[in-house]
Amino acid sequence: MKTYSIALIPGDGIGKDVTEATWQVLKGAASRGDFAIEGTTFPWSCAHYLETGAMMPPDGIETLRKFHAILLGAVGWPAEVPDSISLHGLLLPIRKRFVQYANIRPHRLLPGVQGPLRSEGFDILCIRENTEGEYSGAGGRVHSGTADEVAIETSIFTRIGVERIIRFGLEQARTRRKKLASVTKSNAQKHSMVFWDEVTDDVAKDYPDVEVSRYHIDAMAARMVLAPESLDVIVASNLFGDILTDIGAAIQGGLGYAASANINPDRSMPSMFEPVHGSAPDIAHLGIANPIAAIWSGAMMLEHLGEARAAADVMAAVESVTARGIGTVTSKDSTETITRAVLAALS
Length: 347
Ligand code: IPM
Ligand code: MN
What we know:
By secondary structure, the chain is an alpha/beta fold. It has helices at about 15-30, 45-50, 60-65, 85-95, 160-175, 190-205, 215-225, 240-250, 290-305, 310-325, 335-345; strands at about 1-10, 35-40, 70-75, 100-110, 125-130, 135-140, 150-155, 180-185, 210-215, 235, 260-265, 270-275. The protein contains 11 helices and 12 strands. Helix 1 packs parallel to helix 11 (about 335-345), helix 7 runs parallel beside helix 8 and helix 10 crosses helix 11 (about 335-345). Manganese (II) ion (MN) binds near residues 242 and 246.
């Protein structure tokens, strides 16, 4: 029997609740399928930082490398550890070191979930560049604390980085409605974003069957609200993709439904699956976090591992639960109620 070893990093706040819920569902899916999953839990989090002085041990990346995939809950507890430390000590290094350059985020309404828009029939796949661009971390500060202080944050766009994410987006479009929207701000940012457009045009020549359109980020933000049904696959830089996927989450009913996969497409290193939402300190420990975004991310993990049938079963279970109005209203149903309902629908 195939056995997948999964690294579980529940992290902070509601990350712990939704990871536990997701693991139960994935275990349920495995027990019905012909594969097994084995989880190893790592306590890496802000609490771990306060205890040890580090978000993860120095050999954390090496430890994770041997797993088939990583399931992560949420990282951050800003009241005690600044986000600039917690995220740069755990989440962002995992994305970068494992070259998880494609961040995939699906945006569609689950049955029974009410979105804020009139339009209900949208199905958008956002592909966010996940390792460079505006979040490269290149920069610095000089003359700190003085009136002459300067802060520089440099975006880095490489040909390899842009080419591979555009190609990934085009491949995804090919499996769907064959439309790719490339998002830039090339009217104002005349170096990096013009470069992005040029690379897009080059790579698109290999995909004559995909209709490629260009949008500026501001116009795309409006389009996602006004005409989301006109969109299929969106490809965007790290910052632009980060912002657009919160719009995507909003139009699909909220962050409780927004799933994501950080993919290493050549599979040389593990990929990581996590809900888009954060640790939500305000509702942590209340047991009311919606686990659907995390469970959906878990289904994306099964799909990535090659267990497409189990992934489809999990999504069918989630959809049958939301169709019955369970997990569709913020904080109405407990994490446990929703998880039990998904498990029941699965069997
Ligand atoms: C996300 C989050 C992270 C990101 C933060 C927490 C660094 O907002 O996954 O969208 O911007 O990548
Ligand atoms: Mn974000």
